[in-house]
Structure formats: C-alpha cells, structure tokens
Amino acid sequence: MFASLKASPADPILGLLAKYKEDPNPKKIDLGVGVYKNEGGETTVLNCVKKAEQHRTDTETSKVYLGPTGSTLFNDEMSKLIFGPDHKVLNENRARTVSTPGGTGALRVTAEFIKSCKAGATIWVSNPTWANHTGLFEAAGLIVKTYPYYDYDNKNLDFDGMLAALKQVSADDAVLLHACCHNPSGMDLNNEQWQQVADVAKTIGFTPVIDMAYQGFGQGLDEDAYGLRLMAESVNEMVVCSSCSKNFGLYRERIGACTVIGATSLQADIAYSVVLAVVRVIYSMPPAWCGTG
Ligand SMILES: Cc1ncc(COP(=O)(O)O)c(C=O)c1O
Questions:
Q1: Domain that holds residue 81
Q2: The ligand 1 atom nearest the CA atom of 34
C-alpha cells in the first residue's frame, strides 16, 4: 500500500527549525517558530508553569477521562478571558467553549464544524496568513480563498482592498480574521477598522472565524480582544479559535479552545453538540493539562 506514496514537502517553518539546529554558526538567530526565548536563546519553563505543574501533581486524584469537552472549569475561564467577564454573548448564554489540543486543534475542529454546516463551504483567509491555515481548512474539504491584507509594495495594511473584498463575500461563507499580532505580517486592524469589518459582517451575514493565537502579546489581554469582542456584539454567529501555547508558555502541552457563538442559547447548544461530535471522531478528548474539573 505504501509503495505508491510520494514524499510530502516539509512544513516550511518546521523545515527552517531543522536547518537552524544543523547550522553551526554561533551567531545564528532563529526567526522561525515564534516562541519566547531568553538572552541565551533558550525557551525555559516559566516559574509559574513549574509551580502549576507541582500543584497539579500534588492535588490530582484521578486520571479518569474528562470527556470531549475537556475541563469545564478551564472552558468557563477561557470564555471570560476571551470575552471579558460582562460581555453580551455571556450574559445571553450564547457562547459554548470546548478545550482543544492547541490552537491548531481548535482550527481543525472549526473546519469540520463548518463542513457540518455546509459541505464544501468557502472560507476566506488573509493574504498572507499563517501557513497552516490553508491546509487545515482544505483537509476538511473547504474551499479556501484569500482577501487582500498586506500591501507588500508599501509595506502597510491594505485595508481598502480588504474591505472591498469582504463586501463581495457570500452570506454562507466563513471569513478568518486574526484577533491580534497578525501572523505573519504583524499588521493589526485598529479599533475603527474593526468597526468597519464588523459592520460588513453584520450586513452580509458571513460567519467570522477569529483566530486568537497571541492574546496579551500585542497591546494587552483586553486590548488584543477588542476586535473579537466588538465582532461578537455585532453578529449572531461566530467561532473563536484560541491558542494558549504562547501566552500560557505551554507550547508542547497543546492547550487551546474552540468557542462557538449561536444566535440563541438553544442554537448554541445545538452547535456545541455538533462540535462535540466532531471532536469525538478526530481525537475523542483533549489533553487534561488545562484542568481537572
Ligand atoms: C495565527 C496562528 N494560529 C494558530 C496557531 C497554532 O497554535 P498552536 O501551537 O496552539 O496549535 C499559531 C501558531 O503559531 C498561529 O500563529
């Protein structure tokens, strides 16, 4: 069976990491994977992570399965971190969060969830975007199209181009937006631009999918969620994919969350049941690192 296989190309970023490791140059600088490093170029375990791990070892009383949702305590706390404690979607009980293996897991679950809503749906991503987005969505059979984002000539955000493209999107399409610290361009929308994008989303009715991989790494925990929170106030349905790899300093532990917002509490319950069914057939249950209860 394997004889017909052709080797897949290595992921460019992971390939760069391998080349970096091989390079004997003492002045080498790794500009590949975006992880925190000290002056010595090491990604050490943060003291707070060490303490949390010790606390967990000391207090954990069971290794029994948590179920596809993961830790409900973690999920509730993630919802508050994403939306702030007093957001409309929380007060209206329209958001449901599931723990996922990293932000990548959240994106993959979202891809399958969108497929359940509409097989072969189109999702629009920024040009450029994080290299893995296209593969993740295409793996679920979604059609990936791009909207202008970075103006390479002027080294600036092409906001006019972006807005014009989003006005052409269909109501049953999804649009991926980076909440903050846009990867790879580093160019983020300002508050006024978020308002304009939210207005277009509301008018057209497309489904925003917000990828938040760096909450707290831009302007601050709340500031970085400004656009996402504004969008969630404007539209009826939305998905948020959170990565806790960078801001929790837990990269390899694979911590993240997928949050679906429904038009009503009942629709959120239905959407959540579909998300849980998706989880069950991909990896069954997320890792328990993010919480035990
Ligand atoms: C924009 C973006 N989304 C998602 C991810 C995936 O994060 P994780 O490592 O938690 O899977 C990354 C990681 O680099 C990212 O840059």
A1: 72-282
A2: 14
Q: Does 120 map to a domain?
A: yes
Q: Residue 241 forms beta bridges with which residues?
A: 211, 258
Q: State whether the beta carbon of 130 lies less than 6 angstroms from ligand 1.
A: yes
Q: Which residue in 125, 217, 213, 130 sits closest to 173, CA to CA?
A: 125
278 within a domain of the structure (yes/no): yes
CA of 186 to the centre of ligand 1 (A): 14
Query: What is the pTM assigned to this prediction?
Result: 0.94
Q: Out of 124, 188, 246, 289, which one is annotated catalytic? A: 246
Q: Give the contacts of 82 (CB within 8 A, at least 6 positions apart).
A: 97, 212, 215, 225, 228, 240, 242, 257, 259
221 belongs to a structural domain? yes
Share of the chain above pLDDT 70, in %: 99
Domain count, the chain: 1
**Is residue 52 in some structural domain?**
no
Starting at the earlier edge strand, list the strands of the sheet with 122-127. Answer: 95-101, 255-261, 238-243, 207-212, 174-178, 122-127, 143-148
Interatomic CA distance for residues 90 and 102, integer angstroms: 23
- How confident is the model over 225-278, as pLDDT tens digits? 999 999 999 999 999 999 999 999 999 999 999 999 999 999 999 999 999 999
Q: How far is CA 257 from the centre of its chain?
A: 8
Indicate which CATH number applies to the domain containing 113. 3.40.640.10
